Amino acid sequence: MNWQGVMPAMTTALDEHYKVDAAFMRRHANWLLDNGCTGIISLGSLGQGATLTFAEKEAILRNMADTVGKRVPVVAAISALSTEEAVALAKSAEQAGCAGLMVLPPYVYSSDWREMKAHVVSVFRATPLPCMLYNNPISYGTDFVPPQIAELAAEFKNFEAVKESSSDVRRVTAIRALLGDRLKVFVGVDDVIVESIAAGAAGWVAGLVNAFPAESVALFNYATAGKKTETFELYKWFLPLLRMDTVPQLVQLIHRVQEEVGAGSARVRAPRLETTGAELEQTRRVLAEALAHRTAVKSTPFPKA
């Protein structure tokens, strides 16, 4: 498992009946890789994991592993209301052919460190697959602080990476100060990626990459290579779009952008609803401005059905 580069938090495509569109997801996954992404992460927040049945999750993981598993690692986001279900999903992900797991705290329940640790440890132990811990205190109400992350790293060899989504770039530095290169630090908030790479982040679990993969990969590569002028110009252009990844409506907004650029559908599952009214108008204004001044980045067009 190579924890490096731009790994999309891939959206889950829905057909006109709001069922998972497996065929579209195959095209989407290959397009992301054709534009330079280094892995696929399925079933995360952007993948609407909370609205998928267990059977749908299993089918998506098999589909992604069969489609692109020989090209890049497929990582399964492991999230559930109960530890028992999380463990079952982790084992299913291994059987489906996934190369790694991204482990979330339990949905809904905001627990203390003793309970948080017990939950993620149960998932770490469920399979030998390499694991990434997903820390998102803003969304999930639980915060894995750097000393706790270091404690887990000392106990579990298959704990190999952290997706840090606190929006605090200092967390990248703090984790690396305690652990050096023992863990790969990924950033899970789109509009702090450049700052986080400067602090030592090795990868990006990206959102707007679902619609703009070539630009996302170019930005990551420029920042990693220390090309300041190219990084600044591309980041300045991209930031209004990247900020869509930082609000509660990120799923609807990114799906809408995908539809507008011909790389997906705006359909989402309730309780989320598609963007309408002033929110839709603002989204279209931001996107139109971006497209009018789109930077010259070599890209592969989205494949036709």
Question: What would your notes on this structure say?
Answer:
- The structure is a single chain.
- This protein has 305 residues and is an alpha/beta fold.
- The protein has one domain: Alpha-Beta Barrel (TIM Barrel), CATH 3.20.20.
- The protein has twelve helices and eight strands.
- The chain has an eight-stranded parallel β-sheet.
- The two termini are 31 Å apart.
Please, how many helices? 12
Helix percentage: 40-55%
Please tally the β strands and state the result: 8
Q: How many structural domains can be distinguished in the coordinates?
A: 1
Average pLDDT value?
97
Give the C-alpha Rg.
18 Å
Features:
11% strand, 12 helices, alpha/beta, 47% helix, 305 residues, TIM Barrel, 8-stranded parallel beta sheet
